[in-house]
Specification:
Largest sheet: 2 strands, antiparallel
Shape: flat
Length: 157
């Protein structure tokens, strides 16, 4: 196996997914009907097809994500079985395994820091900062944060 073989294999797998999804999209939306003007019908058909496509991709994405995560765990498990510590190096790249065709490396970002607001408030109080000032600072520094958006498609029976 070489890079070309892997490139062809991954391109083929993506082509298979695209062709499967196109086939299923036609199969699942082919009988859709609605009423209205030509423009309304066109828009409804477009929306219906996009909903079906999104649902297919959503389920496939969840499957691939689960399998990808399991694959990473499997790599670490195999390394441990071989007596190799699978941990990366903060801010660097570590070669963990090599054979005649492949090499496996882990790159890890530099370790960061985090500050918990609760801890800051506790330490400010311990340092004698007036609670009123802390409350005022909290009020001034609190800003709205947009929540996550979830696309939910329900299939009626």
């Amino acid at each position: 196996m070489n890079k070309t073989d892997m490139t062809i294999a991954t391109a083929d797998s993506i082509t298979n997914i695209r062709e499967f999804n196109a086939e299923k999209l036609l199969e699942l939306t082919g009988n859709f009907t609605c009423e209205g003007t030509n423009e309304q019908v066109d828009m409804a058909i477009d929306m219906h097809q996009r909903l079906v496509r999104h649902e297919l991709l959503s389920i496939q994405h969840a499957y691939v994500k689960r399998e990808f995560d399991k694959s990473k765990k499997g790599l670490d498990t195999s390394l441990i079985t071989m007596g190799i510590v699978p941990d990366g190096i903060a801010g660097g790249t570590k070669t963990l395994y090599e054979d005649s065709e492949l090499s496996f490396h882990k790159r890890q970002n530099v370790d960061g820091t985090t500050t918990l607001l609760t801890d800051v408030l506790i330490h400010l109080a311990r340092l004698g900062v007036d609670k009123g000032k802390i409350d005022q600072a909290m009020k001034l520094s609190t800003k709205p944060k947009k929540g996550n958006t979830y696309y939910i498609i329900e299939i009626d029976d």
